[in-house]
Design goal:
mainly alpha, 0% strand
Length: 421
Amino acid sequence: MTSTQNGMARWVPVAMALGTGLAAGPLLMEVDWLVRVGFGAFLLATAFMLVVRPAYSVKYHQYEKAWLVIVLVYVSIFLASFLLRPPYLQDGIWRLSAPGLMLLVLLWFHGIVRHQLGWLAMKVCGIAFVGWGWVVIALEWLKFHPDLLSPAYKGGMYLSGIGHMGTIVPLGAGLLFIVALRERKSLTWWSLAFFGLVLVVLLKKRTPLALYGFEVAAWGMWALFGKHGVSVLKRGLIFFTLAGVLLAGAYTQRDMIRAAINDYRLAEKGNYVTSLGLRYQMFWFGVNLIKEKPLTGWGPSAYKPEGLWPLVDKSGMPDSGKKLIKKFTHLHNQYIMDWVLSGIFGFLSGLAVLLYPLWLVWRRTPSGMGEHAAAAGLIIGLMFVMFFGALFTYTYTTTAIMLTLSSLVAIASRESERRDS
């Protein structure tokens, strides 16, 4: 490698960090100039990683190749389901954005693998997701002066979106927790992980608490019952800390818990025009659509006009409930949506996108402080919340999830290679 090439290679980590960090902003705030800057920076950084020759030769590991194949299969099945079912309606066309961004993140993944930037990529994603989340909270406080501790205030409700913040912020906080476990003696990383946890609690939503809660629970099970030398005192401190965090999070969401209980009581009386009731109805609408076309699905363009809307019209729901369900962009269940849109193969390939990283991080990630358990818990939490939201429907959640999973796969694959060599 020439001195010029070597000098360019030294700038790759900086470019990756800046591009990825700026790209996280428009995921949480859809401001035109921020979208242009963030997306442009991400494209330039990815192209830079792909063009510049690495400082040393790196061969793709079998686990990294498997990740590329799995994501490509999922995207290919979705595209085939769209292309083989003309006419191409607007509702189906806009759904191509999410799989398109999956392909873009795969190029980013190829770049961080070429330059061995897995851990740096995870650190950048964690800091960016949580950092931009705090920016949103700070701007909302300065402009609207909400009571941050009030149950009525949900982080992002003015300048971002509850769905944006509720998924992306806990992913970032979860990554920071994993990094803190690895950098076990670093006060800086433990402080960043703490700020991530505080932000998760301030969001006061069920999704972030569930997502982060699964990670903490999985790591807590490892810490309390795993085969390693942890004293009784430390186990007790861990247990009470975890219990305190989860209880504090549940207390901040007491209004949501009451609402869920009220929704259940209304459903018992036949009223399904509530948050919980509508999800219940959409689940069964999705199941009935799957029964009609279990192998091929309905396709992104046809599933609403040819499948869902006639089914909703025939139901006994009140008109207000029918209008709401027809307006939703998805059925609030990722697994149902994959099957409805792309058939059984779409469902199976979607599962593979989630199960493969879960298997890989559990089996191949270093576990000195239980990083593997925390990473596995984060993915399990993601899989759980996908029962209540089709997160691969939206561009912002799709991008954040793919950045998170790809960085975890990159780290687990490289650590596996080091142990196997």
